[in-house]
Amino acid sequence: AQSVTQPDIHITVSEGASLELRCNYSYGATPYLFWYVQSPGQGLQLLLKYFSGDTLVQGIKGFEAEFKRSQSSFNLRKPSVHWSDAAEYFCAVGASGGSYIPTFGRGTSLIVHP
Amino acid sequence: DSGVTQTPKHLITATGQRVTLRCSPRSGDLSVYWYQQSLDQGLQFLIQYYNGEERAKGNILERFSAQQFPDLHSELNLSSLELGDSALYFCASRQTGGNTGELFFGEGSRLTVL
User: In this structure, what is the dihedral angle of CA atoms B78, B7, A37, A85, given to the nearest 10 degrees?
Assistant: First the structure.
């Protein structure tokens, strides 16, 4: 069965600093990988996704993520954080065959200090 | 705006009661997913429907049931409510066809059981 681990429950950064949110997954084949963002009172919005091809994917709002098969990781990065990036971030994995049920990590809460 | 509509946005009810949450997927999407988000459990998959038929079941209690109607909207019925059922319930839809795996989420229905 697939699973996702987001080791950091909370991350605090200063505005303008760089950001990296960690995500590790468990799945036997090449998975579909996603990062979503959830602002307070909102639903989950897709930031970026990886299916195949280039392992460095670009997303919205200046985010990028890198798929590293050898490390089973899909870390999210942003070079310079803005105060509006404060939110909950979820990594998700979807199996490419059979019943398609994306599994989500527990989330990382990003706090941005001015 | 994801195109997925959920009603009601907020619901307060008492233990033992029954509620119905409604979801309208994006136009043309045949797949509907229901997830429960709580502080201690994260985002948990409940059930999936595809074109009116149940496709997959997750950690859905027997007190909960769902269905998808011919117009593709879906309803999640929660009965004999307990305090622990208080959570944010999300509906998501998935694009039909192609090789895309991302889910499009509604803004959720926040259920409070008193």
Answer: -130
